[in-house]
Amino acid sequence: MTFKIYVDGQEGTTGLRIHEVLASRSDVEVLRIDADKRKDSAERARLLNAADVAFLCLPDAASREAVSLLSNPATCVIDASTAHRTVPGWTFGMPELAPGQRDAIRASKRIANPGCHASAFILLLRPLVDAGLVPADAAISATSLTGYSGGGKKMIEQYEAGGDPALQAPRPYALGLTHKHLPEMKAHTGLAQPPVFLPVVGPFYKGLAVSVPLHRSQLKGGATAADLQQALAARYAGERFVRVMPLADPDTLASGFFDVQACNNTNRVDLFVFANDEQVLLMSRLDNLGKGASGAAVQAMNVHLGLDEGAGL
Ligand SMILES: NC(=O)C1=CN([C@@H]2O[C@H](COP(=O)(O)OP(=O)(O)OC[C@H]3O[C@@H](n4cnc5c(N)ncnc54)[C@H](OP(=O)(O)O)[C@@H]3O)[C@@H](O)[C@H]2O)C=CC1
Ligand SMILES: CC(=O)N[C@@H](CCC(=O)OP(=O)(O)O)C(=O)O
Fold first, then answer.
1. For the chain, which end, N or C, has fewer CB atoms within 10 Å of the first or last residue's CB respectively?
2. Which residues does the entry assign to the active site, renumbered to this chain (predicted)?
3. Per-residue confidence at 21, pLDDT binned at 50, 70, 90?
4. How far is Cα of residue 72 from the mean position of the Cα atoms in its chain?
5. What interface predicted TM-score (ipTM) does this complex get?
6. pLDDT value at position 1?
7. 151 within ligand 2 shell (Cβ under 6 A)
8. What CATH number labels 3-114+293-305?
């Protein structure tokens, strides 16, 4: 059996990547819209409703419009935008989130793909909050270092045009402390309040690393860094796309630097716990276009359709 797939936003950064990931597969037939009709609502509606799975790789407003164009109850939508990640009736497309999440993704026709920064943050924190090691009311802060492809076509063009010295250095942003991923970071970790979140975009194409500093006094009941690492390892045992590194990963420490790009071209996320006697630094890394976007979207599609979860990834 082949499944019909349509990508609304096929010429964008995440849409193109989904096409690349699906290109070698014989179990899906990818429907394409004519270039001159890419923003024609009637033609988009026809293709959206002809698909078994429709990916929305669009700005938030266009994603909401695409959902309003759906009339076929059999079409499953996987929305890569921020529009529906905490909306009731939508399922968060992160199979590793918690026991039962795969069943929810399998059953749902409305799947919201997690944000790139949020994916790295949630995969790091959720098991620790669930295990009670990080109290739900903890005051958390997080930094995320990301490649510029996370900003989509416009930011890629800006960086690749060259000539602006300001783009040669890392640039902190979202300084109004209202980054669009905060609601999903709170909702899907179980934290009572969102983190103070500082994203930083750098002069490299892709790769993303989130770091979360903690004082041991913030952990519950004298828990240690080893307890955190063990809780992560236990939660993700058997997960093919999550790699929990050894406590204070010796290879990273020996190199002296953290490689933000080491998960590029994979659908993997790596989780780290660094520590001294009093402090802990949690870190996670992923490819913002892989597990942070298009890879995760295809993984959710595979789960929804009951296929091998890693097919094509
Ligand atoms: N880049 C990343 O790392 C990640 C992105 N996302 C999210 O995924 C979504 C897509 O992002 P990304 O691919 O980076 O964005 P891009 O800007 O690269 O691509 C968006 C595409 O949508 C098209 N588009 C805009 N409006 C419409 C419309 N009304 N009808 C049809 N097509 C339309 C654009 O057309 P045109 O080419 O004419 O501009 C463009 O091709 C966004 O919501 C983004 O926030 C999520 C995770 C990671
Ligand atoms: C560098 C850069 O601008 N990155 C984007 C994140 C892209 C992303 O993953 O966000 P969505 O999935 O929510 O679209 C940002 O921080 O807004």
1. N
2. 116
3. very high
4. 27
5. 0.93
6. 83
7. yes
8. 3.40.50.720
**Rounded distance, CA 119 to CA 180, Å?**
13
At residue 222, the pLDDT reads 85
d(CA 253, CA 289): 27
- Compute, in angstroms, the gap from residue 96 CA to the centroid of ligand 2: 21
Q: Is the CB of 296 under 6 A from ligand 1?
A: no
Mean pLDDT of 172-180: 98
Location of each CATH 3.40.50.720 domain in the chain: 3-114+293-305
Give the ligand 1 atom nearest the CA of 63: 43
Q: Which ligand is nearest to the CA of 147?
A: 2
Ligand 2 atom having least distance to the Cα of 174? 16
- Of 85, 28, 36, 34, residue with least CA distance to 54: 28
Give the mean pLDDT of 71-83.
Answer: 97
Q: At what angle do helices 225-235 and 116-130 cross, to 10 degrees?
A: 110
Residues 33 and 113: their CA atoms lie apart, in Å, by: 22
Q: Which ligand is nearest to the CA of 197?
A: 2
Mean pLDDT of 249-271: 98
Ligand 1 centre from 295 Cα, in Å?
Answer: 16
Ligand 2 in reach of 207 Cβ (< 6 A):
no
* Ligand 1 site, residue 147, Cβ cutoff 6 A: no
Q: What is the mean pLDDT of the chain?
A: 97
Contact 295, 267 (CB under 8 A): yes
Return the CATH fold of 116-288: Dihydrodipicolinate Reductase; domain 2 (3.30.360)
Q: Boundaries of CATH 3.30.360.10 in the chain?
A: 116-288
Ligand with smallest separation from the Cα of 64: 1
Q: From the alpha carbon of 289, which atom of ligand 1 is closest?
A: 3
Model-wide pTM > 0.90: yes
